[in-house]
Amino acid sequence: MIRLSHHLTDPLIRSNPVTLQILGICSALAVTTALATALTMAAALIFVLCASAAIISAIRRHIPHAIRLILQITIIATLVIVTDEVLRAYAFEISQRLSIFVGLIVTNCIVLGRAEGFAMHHPVGPSILDALGNALGYGLVLVIVATIRELFGTGRLLGIPMLPLAEQGGWFEPLRLMQLAPSAFFIIGLMIWAIRTARPEQVERPEHRLLSRQGEARP
Amino acid sequence: MMEILLASILTDNLALSFFLGICTFLAVSQRISTALGLGIAVIVVQGVTVPVNALIHTFLLAPGALHWAGLPEIDLSFLRIIVFIGVIAAMVQLMELLLDRFVPALHRALGVFLPLITVNCAILGGSLFMVERRYDPLEAVVWGIGSGIGWALAITAFAAIRERLRHADMPEGLRGLGGAFIVTGLMSLGFSGFGGLVP
């Protein structure tokens, strides 16, 4: 079990798909203006990722090598359509707010990446754990960004007032910038900075050494 | 028309205000020349796939679209995600073949980027936005080309900034990816300044 559980825990922070491998952030950021949409999106991705990993891993010995990508995309797209239709049927208002971004799970690099990189070569059990870990790692980033953006952008969380607004006699002045696109980029950038400061082995090697810092002349 | 064009290039920029195609945006922006090549490939693919998808949506998938076949009550719009992905993959393949046959020089320049584009969310996103905003086929042509130009503009400018930043003395944790996000945020902030252009 210990051997298996690292499939689940590794992608949460250490090799988080969003902050380390820049996978899947396309859709991740646009839905983070409110916590409710981010949670829905994370749930949708968890379902699609786990189900596609399970199906692809189960039939991996029968997939001809030449058409594997088409097959994987077809399976993923089918699952995404099911998710989209279920959301539309049971949570219409939130599916309107998610707009096209549930559909874009099809092109989410995490899903295809895990299918091609892991589920194709491993049995069903580890594949599902690996998919769940990656989906949770993605969900974690989404929820953190959405919490910051909704809390400081509107003073609410999940629509419930948290900070007393200045216009209602409190002290909190909503930061309009938090509801705009740039803030999501800033928050992710700062998160990467924080993770890499805590784990210096992830820092990228510089392409050029700065001579002044080395204190030695060019050879 | 002019409004759609301006909006798609500047204010509704796919990369900077809808976060579409950001994976590729960050990965392939080390040099201006490659960024420009990818940008041109996106313009071409987007300009072809969005109108084709618009025609397919209007005449096959939209509710009541099969009226011409005597089946007015059929609504196939739930199929659009899978159909659009198929169309995009097929168009990219077709373009690769045509370019290889007739314009080999361009094929050599764009060759490596074309397969990448199939899974670029900006392309699928462009088609899905076209449906959601109910553009007619003519507007779809403008939206497709415009949003492609917007994406190309963003990635070229970003690559230019990154080339300069290569020599900057950044804190270790910000080097590379972290810094790239902050710069993209600043660019996005700049582009939101165009907001007043489109009523």
From TrEMBL, chain A:
NCBIfam families: nqrD, PRK09292.1. GO terms for biological process: sodium ion transport. The chain crosses the membrane at residues 20-53, 65-82, 94-115, 127-148, 177-195. It comes from the Bacteria. It is an enzyme of class 1 (oxidoreductase). GO terms for molecular function: oxidoreductase activity, acting on NAD(P)H, quinone or similar compound as acceptor. Keywords: Cell inner membrane, Cell membrane, Ion transport, Membrane, NAD, Nitrogen fixation, Oxidoreductase, Sodium, Sodium transport, Translocase, Transmembrane, Transmembrane helix, Transport, Ubiquinone. Its main location: membrane. InterPro entries: NqrD (IPR011292), NqrDE/RnfAE (IPR003667). It holds the Pfam family Rnf-Nqr. Its EC number is 1.6.5.-. It is a multi-pass membrane protein. It is found in: Endomembrane system. This is Na(+)-translocating NADH-quinone reductase subunit D. GO terms for cellular component: endomembrane system; plasma membrane.
TrEMBL record, chain B:
It is an enzyme of class 1 (oxidoreductase). The keyword Nucleus does not apply. The chain crosses the membrane at residues 6-28, 35-56, 76-98, 110-129, 141-161, 173-198. Its EC number is 1.6.5.-. It is found in: Endomembrane system. GO terms for biological process: respiratory electron transport chain; sodium ion transport. It is a multi-pass membrane protein. Keywords: Cell inner membrane, Cell membrane, Ion transport, Membrane, NAD, Nitrogen fixation, Oxidoreductase, Sodium, Sodium transport, Translocase, Transmembrane, Transmembrane helix, Transport, Ubiquinone. GO terms for cellular component: endomembrane system; Gram-negative-bacterium-type cell wall; plasma membrane. One of its GO terms (molecular function) is oxidoreductase activity, acting on NAD(P)H, quinone or similar compound as acceptor. Pfam families: Rnf-Nqr. PANTHER family: INTEGRAL MEMBRANE PROTEIN OF SOXR-REDUCING COMPLEX (PTHR30335), NA(+)-TRANSLOCATING NADH-QUINONE REDUCTASE SUBUNIT E (PTHR30335:SF1). This is Na(+)-translocating NADH-quinone reductase subunit E.
